[in-house]
Write a structure and sequence with these properties.
It is globular and about 105 Å long. The chain has helices at about 5-30, 130-135, 185-190, 200-215, 250-260; strands spanning about 60-65, 70-75, 80-85, 90-100, 105, 110, 115-120, 140-150, 150-155, 165-175, 175-180, 230-235, 265. Helices cover about 25% and strands about 25% of the residues.
């Protein structure tokens, strides 16, 4: 070993000793600034920006839809929107329930808690899962089953990879298919996926289950009235207009209050 090589080794050793001394002094003087580094498989719980609201389901609001014969409960601070338009061309109606506050479910970001219920007219005799692959997503996978109001619902994953946001429920009743799309925390909680906040996901999961368990395929009502089959009823002047019960002011008022999407009388 020549003198040049020896000098290089000695110099490296001196640098390492100096670095070690400086690091030791830094730790001694600033103990609060040293943080542990998460290991590759360690679960990291994000600090929530907003606590998920916990509520008594008995005090929740009830959304009723007489046209498609279902009702569902939702937290009192949530909102509801309805639409005849959907990303699915064959859908005939859509109801969107969503929370008023965002929730941090992971270290990667926040979501607005929501459940979307899309309704389709089932005009063929396909088995439900075959219908799903034909009308919703040909890549859908059936990953489980559960009961909604006594009816079997399929739990489906719509993507080739298993991501916890993509487990939806589909069921059918009296010629209609009901597709419930939501953020589902089930897989997060089961697998304790790295980077997800378990407390917020548990509360989100509990709320989802309470909403789903309230879905009923009948509408509680003491009224014998039925909703119109279209957005408008024909009340154009004519010889029989006075005998049309659907043109009576009391009925029109009731229909606007109870029938989703009803616009009024066409005059």
């Amino acid at each position: 070993m020549n003198l040049k090589t020896i000098a290089i080794f000695v110099g490296a050793a001196i640098v390492a000793i100096i670095f070690g001394v400086i690091t030791a002094i830094s730790i001694k003087d600033n103990p609060g600034k040293i943080k542990s580094i998460p290991q590759p498989n360690q679960v990291v719980n994000a600090t929530p920006t907003t606590a998920f609201p916990t509520q008594n389901a008995e005090n929740w609001q009830i959304y009723k839809n007489n046209t498609y014969n279902f009702q569902i409960k939702y937290p009192s601070d949530w909102k509801v929107t309805e639409s005849r338009k959907s990303i699915y061309p064959s859908a005939i109606y859509e109801v969107f329930l969503y929370g008023s506050k965002d929730v941090q479910i992971s270290q990667f970001g926040v979501i607005t808690p929501s459940i979307r219920l899309t309704i389709f007219k089932k005009s063929n005799n396909l088995e439900l899962f075959d219908w799903i692959k034909t009308n919703i997503d040909k890549a859908a996978k059936n990953v489980g089953k559960r009961l909604i109001d006594g009816k079997e619902a399929l739990e489906i994953s719509r993507f080739s990879y298993e991501y916890p946001a993509n487990y939806d429920l589909v069921t059918e009743n009296k010629g209609y298919v009901y597709y419930v799309s939501m953020f589902n925390s089930k897989k997060v909680l089961q697998d304790k996926i790295e980077g997800y906040n378990m407390d917020n996901n548990q509360q989100l999961f509990n709320t989802e289950q309470s909403i789903l368990s309230s879905l009923k395929f009948s509408v509680e009502s003491n009224s014998q009235l039925t909703c119109p089959t279209s957005e408008w009823v024909d009340c154009m002047p004519g010889p029989d207009v006075g005998s049309r019960p659907e043109c009576e002011p009391a009925y029109l008022k009731w229909a606007k209050e109870n029938c989703a999407g009803f616009q009024g009388a066409a005059l």
